[in-house]
Write a structure and sequence with these properties.
Length: 690
């Protein structure tokens, strides 16, 4: 059989291009001098005491010692690092030791890596999207000569497994055969990783580029998917294609020398002292809140409550770690749903651009790890790897997820944990891991039937389980109802937008400023409740709405979930004003927004009352009760009429209890579809299960 297609499953390591270069002996001498300097020797002793075998050096230090030496690292890293490691082994007397260099002054963008950098020492920055399991890699192998019994030691220096050519025993010197003695061979740890460009570098909706890497020995498992890292290493290439049909193109792999997880707040680097001074000045403006809300998605006309909600989501509030080890999320989740063409996608894209660590994706995307995480085949070493989905990649930021209702089944089952506990657990194919998803979710979903029907409960119209719906702090329905006056204004707005974009879209704060205010607020502002007033406002609202439920058997309008949402939104209101102190106005604005959302999403179309059951179970109390009543009527009639109930009779008896004919018709249709009812003969109805 003949197969000439490229299989990315395994890298053909025998096609390894080592980029072998030889260091000048003068450079080698200098390297020895550098590593024998007093400061370094002291450091090595300290490391040895801690049982560590890697000496980490700032590139700057190498540069200060000798420019030529620093240059040699960049140009001939393979030889440079091999020599350094050998010197370190000599000094430390350890079986293995490594020199690892971090913080090269010139970082390369993953998308800018070019052929000229092959074999060179480079540094890239990105998000880890994939890590493989840790495997043992043979380092020094022992081969027993089956003719004379001599043990031959072979160092495995590159990726191709090497066997001895002839037996070392001078009395033997035959070509084997040899047997690999696994027990006496030496192994080191090996792991493959994948880094992806930071979302920040993807402005304008570019596809993220990726780079594969290999980490060895004591530096494996330094990072998990979702971590933001700075990596330095040697860029190597491997020929693509099958052994017999090699291609002229090569695949890039970074042999990682140093990896560092950047703690949160990388985007804080975007804030200059001047920016901070300017923002402090802005904080004094009593209209700051309004300026911010007006600057949200400025090309979209209307939708003020939605814009306010998104503003609050962008600012967020700090999560709270409770003493019992649990955690209360600070991120607000928002769902936009409604008719097509109401600018949902547009709003999402805007939010993903302005948010630090913002990311726009679609729930429908079938490839890879989807929204949460997955165990996937490791292309480099075979075996399994853990791959991060969108929520893990945007950890610490905002994920704008379009077509949220189209997510895969795996995602749907993992997303509850991602939304509430803000982690995702993977236990598959020997990979057991928990990754962070401390991400605010701004989701959009279209109604299952295309358009939104305002007479039916939300949960029935969106293809999302009520459990997921109830995890959103705020749900908005964007309706496209003809309303001449508004239509004219929106039309004019859109037309002018095409005509004179800069005049129409003139937000009080430009995107860059807004982004900096958000970064500033998230860095410095942790609002606290001051005085009893704001807390009391929230408490009163909660208790009052609950009271309505107690009185006269009403549906439960609000649960502890909405209470937590209220607290988050209240804090975010203060943070948006760049204030540490929460006022009663912050609480009232949050209450107003929650009321709007509850009215839109939780409203029972039959009674016009807010009914959280609509959200939670997809059925309002009143409807559920009526359904049970009608089923009772059918049951009674079945007894009377010998097994099947006449539809006319059902309707007559139902109307005596105040249940409309239209409800009975609709309900019978629905229950027939579900298989609970059937029509044994025209005009007669029976229950399928009695
Ligand atoms: P959806 O995702 O809700 O189906 P889109 O975001 O694709 O809708 O919007 C369709 C188009 O209509 C976009 O170009 C959007 O800018 C425009 N549009 C819809 N409503 C508005 C509005 N209120 N103001 C400005 N543009 C609007
Ligand atoms: Mg859309």
């Amino acid at each position: 059989m003949h197969d000439n297609s490229y299989k990315p499953d395994r890298i053909p390591f025998d096609n390894c291009h080592l980029g072998v270069t030889n260091l000048d002996s003068s450079v080698k001498e200098k390297l020895g001098e550098f590593l024998h300097a007093r400061g370094i020797l002291k450091e090595l002793r300290r490391l040895a005491a801690k049982g560590q075998k890697s000496l980490v050096i700032e590139f700057e230090r190498l540069l200060e010692f000798d420019m030529e030496l620093a240059k040699a690292l960049l140009e001939h890293p393979n030889d440079f690092l091999d020599t350094a490691d050998a010197i370190l082994v000599e000094i430390t007397k350890l079986p293995s030791a490594h020199l690892r260099i971090k913080n090269i002054d010139k970082a390369t963008l993953i998308r800018d890596i070019r052929a000229s950098q092959v074999g060179k020492f480079i540094q890239v920055e990105g998000i880890i999207t994939r890590v493989s399991e840790v495997k043992p890699e043979i380092k020094e192998s022992v081969f027993k000569c089956l003719r004379c019994g001599e043990e031959n030691r072979v160092m495995q220096i590159d990726e191709v497994f090497r066997e001895p050519l002839i037996c070392e025993n001078p009395n033997c010197s035959r070509k084997g055969p040899f047997k690999l003695e696994i027990e006496s061979s030496e192994f080191r740890d090996w792991q493959s990783i994948r880094v992806q460009e930071r979302p920040e570098e993807l402005r304008g909706g570019r596809m993220p580029r990726q780079l594969d890497g290999i980490i060895k020995d004591d530096f494996v498992d330094k990072a998990v998917p979702g971590n933001h890292v700075i990596i330095s290493g040697i860029l190597r290439v491997f020929q693509e294609g099958m052994p017999r049909q090699r291609k002229t193109t090569f695949r890039k792999i970074l042999f990682v020398n140093h990896i560092e997880v950047v703690q949160k707040g990388v985007e804080e680097a975007e804030l200059s002292p001047e920016d901070e001074a300017r923002i402090k000045e802005l904080a004094k403006d009593q209209w700051l809140r309004n300026l911010i809300i007006q600057s949200i998605a400025p090309s979209i006309y209307g939708y003020e409550p939605i814009k306010e909600a998104i503003a609050l989501q962008l600012f967020g509030c700090p999560a709270i770690d409770l003493p019992d080890g649990t955690r209360k999320r600070g991120d607000t989740h928002i769902l936009l749903t409604g008719d097509p063409g109401t600018a949902k996608s547009e709003v999402l894209k805007w939010a993903s651009l302005v948010a630090p660590r913002g990311l726009y994706t679609s729930g429908k995307k079938a490839t890879g790890a989807g929204l949460t995480a997955a165990a996937v085949r490791d292309e480099i070493g075979g075996g399994w790897a853990l791959e991060a989905g969108a929520l893990v990649i945007s950890d610490g930021g905002l994920a704008a997820i379009d077509e949220f209702d189209k997510m895969s089944e795996e995602d749907a089952s993992a997303i509850l944990e991602s939304m509430e506990q803000q982690t995702v657990s993977v236990a598959k194919a020997g990979i057991v891991a928990t990754l962070n998803t401390r991400t605010a979710i701004l989701a959009a979903a279209n109604p299952a039937l295309g358009r939104f029907d305002k007479y039916r409960p939300l949960a029935e119209q969106i293809n999302l389980p009520p459990m997921i719906l109830s995890r959103f702090d705020l749900i908005f329905i964007m309706r496209d109802e003809p309303f001449a006056e508004r239509d004219r204004v929106v039309a004019r707005h859109i037309l002018e937008l095409h005509h004179e974009p800069t005049r129409v879209v003139k937000p009080p704060l430009d995107m860059d400023t807004l982004r900096k205010i958000i970064i500033y607020a998230r860095k410095y502002i942790d609002p606290k409740f001051e005085g009893k007033e704001p807390l009391k406002a929230i408490e009163d609202f909660f208790v009052e709405w609950r009271k309505v439920a107690e009185k006269g058997d009403m549906p439960l309008p609000i649960t502890a979930r909405q209470l937590e949402a209220l607290v988050r939104l209240t804090k975010a209101n203060a943070r948006m004003r760049l204030s540490d102190r929460i006022t009663v106005e912050d609480a009232n604005r949050a209450i107003k927004l929650v009321k709007i959302s509850l009215h839109e999403a939780g409203i029972d179309p039959e009674t016009g009352r807010v009914d959280i059951d609509v959200l939670m179970t997809g059925k309002s109390r009143s409807q559920r009760e009526k359904l049970e009543r009608v089923l009772d009527i059918i049951k009674d009639l079945e007894g009377e009429y010998g097994g099947a109930a006449p539809v006319g009779e059902i309707k007559r008896l139902a109307s005596l209890e105040g249940i409309k004919e239209s409800f009975v018709d609709e309900m019978i249709d629905k229950e027939k579809m579900r298989g609970h009812l059937y029509e044994p003969k025209p005009g007669m109805i029976s229950r399928a299960v009695r």
